[in-house]
Write a structure and sequence with these properties.
Strand content: 15-25%
Number of helices: 15
Helix content: 25-40%
Distance between the termini: 54 Å
Number of domains: 4
Largest sheet: 5 strands, mixed
CATH superfamily of the largest domain: DNA polymerase, Y-family, little finger domain
CATH topology of the largest domain: Dna Ligase, domain 1
Structural class: alpha+beta
CATH class of the largest domain: Alpha Beta
Order of helices and strands: EHEEHHEHEEHHEHEHHHHHEHEEHEH
Length: about 400
Amino acid sequence: MERVILHLNIADFPVAVERLLDRTLRTRALVIAEPAARAVVYDMSDEAYADGVRKGMVLALARRRCPAALVLPPRPELYRRALGRCLEHALHYTPLVEPAGGQGHLYLDVSGTQRLFGQPADIGWRLRNTLRQDLGLDPIWSVAPNKLLAKVASRLVKPCGEYLVAGGAETAFLAPLPLPLLPGLLPADLGRLARVNIRRVHQAAALSVAELAVLCDGRARHIHQTVRGVDPTPVVPAGTGRADLHHQHTFAPDTNDERSVRSALAALVQQAGCVLRGRGLGCRRVGVQLVYTDGLAVVRQATSTLPVDDDCALEQLARTALYRAWHRRTRLRTLALCCDRLLHPVRQLSLFAPADPGRERQRSLSTAMDTIRARCGDTAILRGSRRTPDAPTGAA
């Protein structure tokens, strides 16, 4: 059966919710950020974006770029409740609904629902009308054979409209588009391709994996699939425990000390690893986001062939992503860790390859440390990589 994915996107979701509660805000430029000296922008309205304000930017710089903007503190719990209401309406059509990122994005797998609810486009129209009447929110929507294509289609019609990508039309749909429209392509990928004047999808799609490897090395296969619109990622329903994991650390004060950054990263890995093991899951991709003092945000990722759940393997991936992202001497303000592509870790022994006793010992060690922390507190036992520059030498 051909997959049919409906992507629902409420543009600038936190701003839309704030304006829903206070109609006087609809004509004003808005910036959502904590009222603190070191705060960064959480979200902004189209008016503020047009003046140069961006997510992750230092609030002081955002104020200079858009002096007329009204600054409101973020209310994440309110936004979660609003997204929950949207989710309730979407669940009337399919149990396969995935909230993506918590910022007004929903993916619905409506494959095989035509006899119950009509064509996917009809579902999109009905959902949009329902959300407008019930919540006052006006989403854009798109229909496509997979999540990647649906997201690209939504980007084409933002901030309002709808788009349908028919099955079999993937190549024709993507071919004329600029590469930056595709999710999953890193700035480094785009830069390497631009150096040889490859700027549109059809130009990159004409290259083989081997040819892409000359330019992008380990990213070649991923890029090859992305520019062809290949995305087998399933829609993961809310509440299944497989949503992406996000953890963040804010430095006080800002720092570019390597040991402090690595210690903070190890703490985030410990948090993520404990959650993964508690859910019986492993992750295949770890992403690190760095936000510098000047507001520049950089994201890089590292991927594992098999899902991993022990702290040692997770930290290796996290450090790889960290050093891919960290190439400036400017001090860092925040460090964030994301674990995605969550699957059940492989436990079956290989028929021919010898078992890896080191990997099993690390997994057992991480589980034992989880047990100790559950009984005695999170800092009862630590890995050496969590030591800060001024930590006592007896720290474990």
